[in-house]
Amino acid sequence: MTIASLGYLALYVVVLLALAKPLGLFMMAVYEGRRTWLHPVLRPVERGIYRISGIDEQREQGWRGYTISLLLFNLLGFLFLYLLLRSQGHLPLNPEGLPGLKPSLAFNSAVSFVTNTNWQSYGGETTMSYLSQMLGLTFQNFVSAAVGMAVLVALIRGFARHSATTVGNFWVDLVRGTLYILLPLALVVAIFFISQGIIQNFSSYHEVTTLEGAKQLIGMGPAASQVAIKQLGTNGGGFFNVNSAHPLENPTAWSNAVSLMAILLIPASLVYMYGRMVGSVRHGWVVLGVMTAFMLVGAVVSGWAEQSGNPNAGDLGIERSAGDGQPGGNFEGKEVRFGIESSTLWATTTTLASNGSVNSMHDSYTAIGGLVPLANIATGEVIFGGVGSGMYGMALYIILSVFIAGLMVGRTPEYLGKKVEAREMKAVMTALLAFPLVVLVFTATGAVNSFGTGTLNNAGPHGFSETLYAFESGGGNNGSAFAGLGANGTFYNMGIGICMLVGRFLFIVPVMVIAGTMVTKKRVAPGPGTFPVDGLVFGFLLFASVIIVGLLTFFPAFALGPIVEHLAMRDGTLY
Amino acid sequence: MNPAALKAELRPLIAVTVALMLITAVLYPLAVTGIGQAIFNRQANGSIIRQDGQDIGSSLIGQSFTAPEYFHGRPSAAGSGYDAANSSGSNLGPTSAKLINGVADNPGTADVDESFAGLKQRVAAFREENGLDASAPIPADAVTASASGLDPHVSPATARLQIERVAKARNADAAAIRKLVDDHTESAELGFLGQERVNVLKLNLALDKRFPLAK
Questions:
Q1: What are the pLDDT digits (tens) for A565-574?
Q2: In this structure, is residue B215 part of a structural domain?
Q3: Residue A563 to residues A155, A364, A370, A468: CA-CA distances in angstroms?
Q4: Is B121 an 8 Å CB contact of chain A?
Q5: pTM above 0.80, yes or no
Q6: Interface of B with A in 155-194 (CB under 8 A)
Q7: What domain range is B34 assigned to?
Q8: Averaged pLDDT for residues B189-210
Q9: What's the total number of domains in chain A?
Q10: Chain B residues 33-92 with CB within 8 Å of chain A
Q11: Both B18 and B105 in a single domain?
Q12: A363-378 tens-digit pLDDT
């Protein structure tokens, strides 16, 4: 790590935290139904939607009703997207005449977008028609993020209200999140992206004759509008196969910097909003501080590992240290315009945030450089995490931390003035155990069967890491990949599809259960046994809980993959 | 859930889905397209470079250069090289024997070419075509495939190492070409965003203009 790259990291964190408060306050106003400066334009649209839908925005739902509405909405979204992808060959806006997707790929892609994962078994420009990109993918990019925020808001109401029964109206939260938060931000970011050179058109692919006289066919399409929401909504599914490494999807250092900010902007702001709405701003800052600490460690470690490079390449005479007009380091799978530090910072944030877009190929990272994304996802995507899903996932870890603290002093644990009892703990543990369970079972199955190992791009421990990364990415709803893996077969399409469903809905339902039980409880006054959640001790306990409960579950798997690979790389062993 | 309650759910379910789809998936992309096409027309359409009535490429997308009189870009894993409708990286890891040592063509299968140039072959080829000695250090970007396979840039060091070769092929003064390379070296935005780099296509276009090839 150079001084410049540490400065870049520091600036990034400062800007991110500075934006978290104003956006957090704005989002709070939106979900509380207060008037914002966007209301003159958007309020009539919002009311129009309620009118045609027959929604009474004052009528709230209990946790069951809220959850059922949410699940029905996602079920319909899934069915629609599946059918759209299957039949795109017969539908308009398909200038390249791309055929419909085969069943396992359509299933995988539909689940992928509905669950805010955006795993790409498909190839972007070689698979998806413009109609599918818009009606299917862009639409789910918006609403899957809005659904995540809706669940978070319902959970917040569960904590903030007492002796109540309702947690809000799903439809109202969904519409408000989409209209007031995601849409305006996406519009601004998309226009900026076009100014930098991200394409936005409906032309067929453009043929040019290169200087040396060859034909080059350049992929086209409405990319900017989708890329903007893919970053803001922590979706991450690329318009092109190589995602944000593609020069038409991320052309400049500026588009890269704005994308980086867009990845963590809403997740970080939601943490502030959470603290504010549950009545303890300091609690919000402590949680945000814990998340930032994880990010700094990840960014520094991966930046150092990638700049140190690959000794096997160094032995051939390839420069490993930067200087004199060349970047040094491990440069396979990285772009010159970004260099090492913008690549590794991106790799860190995109895997913390369950975003999953990439601007460099994680598969070509050094062992330790690649361990950082693997470890980030293994925490269950709660450090910043997905839009909404990150903070409600983190809330599970918070409850767990408080519970552990309660056990230590022998008192009934309480959180935000509410007693934490057996039902809540069962819900917490269901979610926190379901994620490693599906991920590790599928990884183990894939690692010992030819249907799992047959499509690996790398041999040896790195090949194992490809399988592990794929199922982690699905279960964590991340969507990035060690992309060499040929994942478009039945085993991976279906297996990752199941991981995505478990990772999404076995978090959402337990969180809604907690919201439902918490909202009915009485508030108890803090006593001498109350564990304060707005101090450093709590921050440390939370940090440790994520590492011990989340990360250490995966340690044996890491030992088989990146850790062995690191030792092999140092010794010059090749596979 | 009883049928009556389910029926009550259906109207908001369908109406909200249709309404939000109309707004986010139709109106929003169309609005972005309209604004983009109006005020950033060139960028929205792929930053295409037109010369003598012919489209010769995008300033953002790398092209394959192999002739000695042109500066060469990075190795590419997109299709058969710089296939702009099929972006891809190599996705080979640091302990990959294929990446480090390459793969030789199997003489048993005459109709398929299995050969793959690994780092070892690329380093040797780069040294040879640019007349560098056998222990000369090579910039990492010169011999590694980019993430997209379409990287339009090389590092300034990689460009400079090619000056002698290009000058010789064009019968031009190396110092003048070096100046051209310097002029086309873009520094990091604000001094810290991104990297120092040279756009290979733009450099080669300028080269053709300043030092035309005898035809």
A1: 999 999 999 9
A2: no
A3: 38, 15, 10, 13
A4: no
A5: yes
A6: 155-158, 160, 185, 188-189, 192-194
A7: 3-43
A8: 91
A9: 1
A10: 33, 35-37, 40, 43-48, 54-58, 60-67, 70, 74, 82-92
A11: no
A12: 999 999 999 999 999 9
